Amino acid sequence: MTTVGDQEVDVMYGLRNVLSKIEGAVARRSKDLPQISPRLVAVSKIKPPAVIIQAYEAGQRDFGENYVNELAEKASNPDILGKCKDIKWHFIGHLQNNKINKLLGSPGLFMVETVDSEKLADNLNKQWPKYRKEEEKLKVMVQVNTSAEEAKNGVPPSEATSLVEHVLKQCPNLEFIGLMTIGIYDYDMANGPNPDFITLAKCRQELCEKLNMDIKNIELSMGMSTDYEHAIEQGATTVRVGSVIFGARPPKPN
Ligand SMILES: *Cc1c(COP(=O)(O)O)cnc(C)c1O
Prior knowledge:
Distance between the termini: 31 Å
Bound molecules: pyridoxal-5'-phosphate
Structural class: alpha/beta
Largest sheet: 8 strands, parallel
Radius of gyration: 18 Å
Oligomer: single chain
């Protein structure tokens, strides 16, 4: 048990519980879907380095943050650098062009899941050679606004294929990994499969047909604490889970 703010959190228990539920969901997943074993990204935003280290020591390697400054600070934290040598940071927030250098300079940056414009892709492509080790490409996902909410970032589903094509053809320093969506909060599963997940899977289908790609090589990042099992049943290959591992976050001030 660790006290985080005013909560008692058992990170190891939370992590094990999520991993076993993921396994259960994989077993229920339709056999028509690519059988990629899902990656759990532990979303550690607002949580202190101590709990990240606990999760790492329990075997977790992929962590997600949605603010550049917070990711950069945690990635450079001496305890994390010392104890979490193989940590993989996923950036899952909105990326402004003026924060690119700070993000790319963060040790252990593994993937940017939120590429949502050609300009952002071009800038990442241009800056990455200054930061990369050896010849490795920067892994990126294209973020799709599947719920068409004004406040959400991401390209409309109808533009996903063309942005992916741009990354593939114009951005030799980037490696296209898949599609990501956030989707609506509090979707009621009593109404059937989450339309955001269906839309993201359709975008993948479409881009495979148009760009002649193999569906097995294209990931889907979707699903959070309330719906990651459902997301996996719908084909998620990456789930981003925070509060059920690290404890609830204070509500966002409006
Ligand atoms: C915070 C966040 C998550 C995790 O949310 P939980 O409900 O805590 O699991 C996932 N994805 C993104 C983009 C987030 O910002």
